[in-house]
Amino acid sequence: MEYIGSIRSRLRRAANWLRHALQRGSADEEPSAISWRELIPLLGLLIPLAFIRLWLLEEVPSNVTGDEVEYLNDVLRILHKGMGFFALAGDGSQPAVNFYYMAGFVKLLGEDNAIVAMRLSSGVMSLAAIVAFYFYLRLKAGPWPSLLAAGLLGTNFVFLNFSRGSWLNAGTLFFGILSFFLLELALAKRRLWLSGAAGFAAACAVYGYAAGRVFPLASLAYLGYLGLRRRLHWRTALAHGLVFNVVLLIVFLPQLVAISQDFERYTMRGRTTFIGDEWGRGVASLLLGKDFEEPYYGETDMKGILWHQVTYSIRGFVFLDPAVGGEGRENARYGPIDEAPVDVVTRILFFLGMATVLFVHRRDIVQPTIALLGMIVGLQIIVTLPPNYARGLFLLPFIYLLVGLLIDKAWSLPWAGNLGRAIILVAVALVALLNVHHYFDWGRSDELADARWPSIRYEEVPLWVETQKQNLKEGKPDLHIHIEQWQNLIKDQPVQDEGEIQDDD
Fold first, then answer.
1. What's residue 250's pLDDT?
2. C-alpha distances out from residue 448 to 85, 115, 340, 443, 451, Å
3. Predicted TM-score (pTM) of this structure
4. What is the pLDDT of residues 120-140, one digit of tens each?
5. Beta strands 88-89 and 94-95: pairing type?
6. What is the reported pLDDT for 495?
7. Residue 357 burial by CB count (10 A; 0-12/13-18/19+): exposed, middle or buried?
8. How many Å apart are CA 333 and CA 488, to the nearest integer?
9. Residue 61's closest CA among 166, 156, 153?
10. How would DSSP label each residue in 169-191?
């Protein structure tokens, strides 16, 4: 018994020593104030990230999706016929303001380069999202760890895919992260005008992709959390919340008016993707005591459908399970099949980062955590085909937020020294390069080309542009991939075979 007691005592002393050792350094220190000098290394990071987004932009990915040419229709309508700034565009769930931004790039580069211009608009917004992510992380970590985490986010292969396509997600991500940064800065400095700026950024996020609605809800929940935990006086929380809300509502009010005039169209996508129809079948099967013949992912009863939705969402967004990567009809377009949305090293660091934030290197990540949970519940569990990275792209900044905090802890340990930091720098650079290489391999693959169907070839884009412009001029319906008019137009178009492509090379 004495021997066992001695072992317990030694283990207890070792655990206490390790805990005190880990709590040294930055664990009890706030990061230094953000300096303008940090813009120099940040700019140095943005230059290669911009180059990666420009490289082979008209070749990788290897085709143009139906979504991209549908967006091109709205861009051409803005340029040639006009569209209200707050009109509903796309499938009706996106305000036209998003396509005005794309149209500006098309106007600048010319309609002959329309797809490149639209993709470039996403690339610029993705760089802005990286900058916002850097400054948000700087509120909680040092400059170099924040820079390294921003570099890892910028080279993630899924994020690169969204950065090099005509998507609205990157802009929504930028404004959402910016709103988080401005709100936490407002609370730290006790500046109400910064809360107003956060409300403006949150409104811009809501103007974007559907996932943008999560950001203001998370911010308001965060203010309530701070008040309930008495980390902020309730009057202060109320004042910041009121300013945030007033600005948000004023900025989004014109869009609310447009939505009220065509509410059915605006909510059509949400109704289409809502899991309610499948759950309705499950409830019916429960009441009738029988299973239906058409299964949803092999499930035909309420319990099975709910279990699928919850487990797939958690496996994809919490455990980053590769087995559900690329599941569903959509997700194979966003990331490689049977892969997690991050590389193996980052996945390990993410789990270590969670443990570090919870037990060692405590930092306030309540606001982004609420946003992620909101996306899991509101945009995964109750929506068909989870996990879906397009509807939950904020998962990536959240992952690299925790990775950045883990790097910050390792960076600040007393025994790290210059050698340890050099090893971290080299390791991060190696992971980033491997991710970029992986993206371009996957971007050229038949796997991605097939997943992006329905699509058109790059050489068919000029014909699409001219046909859509003619339709607009004559007042005809918009061009679509599946309609007879387009099928007849491309029927006689020559198609290069592999031998011709090899000869050209």
1. 97
2. 34, 18, 16, 6, 5
3. 0.89
4. 999 999 999 999 999 999 999
5. antiparallel
6. 55
7. buried
8. 27
9. 166
10. HHHHHHHHHHHHHHHHHHHHHT-
Report in angstroms the alpha-carbon separations of 330 from 252, 364, 388: 30, 34, 7
Buried b (16+ CB within 10 A) or exposed e, 190-200: eeeebbbbbbb
Token pair recorded at residue 206: 């809501």
d(CA 156, CA 152): 6
The pair of structure tokens assigned to 486 is: 């387009």
Distance CA 331, CA 317 (A): 13
**Residue 293 carries which side chain, given as an amino acid letter?**
E
Tell me the CA end-to-end span of the chain in Å, nearest whole number: 79
Sorted by sequence, the CB contacts under 8 Å of residue 170 that are 6+ apart come out as: 122, 123, 125, 126, 128, 129, 162, 163
Alpha-carbon radius of gyration of the chain: 25
Are 437 and 383 in contact by the 8 Å Cβ rule? The answer is no
pLDDT in tens, 403-455: 999 999 999 887 778 888 999 999 999 999 999 999 999 999 999 999 998 89
- Planar angle of CA 343, 346, 351, nearest 5 degrees: 125
Q: For 370-411, write each residue's pLDDT tens digit.
A: 999 999 999 999 988 889 998 899 999 999 999 999 999 999
- In the chain, where are the structural domains located? 54-269+419-491
Contact (CB, 8 A) for 358 and 176: no
Write out the two tokens for 146. 């924040």
Secondary structure (DSSP) of 44-106: HHHHHHHHHHHTTTTTSSSSEEHHHHHHHHHHHHHHHT---TT-EETTTTEETHHHHHHHHHH
> How many angstroms separate the Cα of 467 from the Cα of each of 118, 133, 472, 478?
19, 41, 9, 9
Look up residue 97 and give its two tokens.
């303001």
Contact in structure between 258 and 87 (CB atoms under 8 Å): yes
Residue burial 95-108, b: 16+ Cβ < 10 Å; e: rest: bbbbbbbbbebbee
Cβ neighbors of 204 (< 8 A, separation 6 or more) are 171, 175, 251
The two tokens of residue 86 are 């707050």
Q: How would residue 327 be classed by pLDDT, with cut points 50, 70 and 90?
A: confident
Where does 190-301 have alpha helices with state H?
A: 192-207, 214-228, 234-261, 263-266, 268-273, 276-288
d(CA 18, CA 1): 26
| Phi, psi dihedrals of residue 386, rounded to the nearest 5° | -80, 160
**The tokens 């904020």 sit on which residue?**
394
No. of helices (H) and no. of strands (E), the chain: 24, 4
Contact at 8 Å (CB) between 186 and 334?
Answer: no
pLDDT confidence of residue 9: 66
Give the side-chain half-sphere CA count within 13 A for 186. Answer: 24
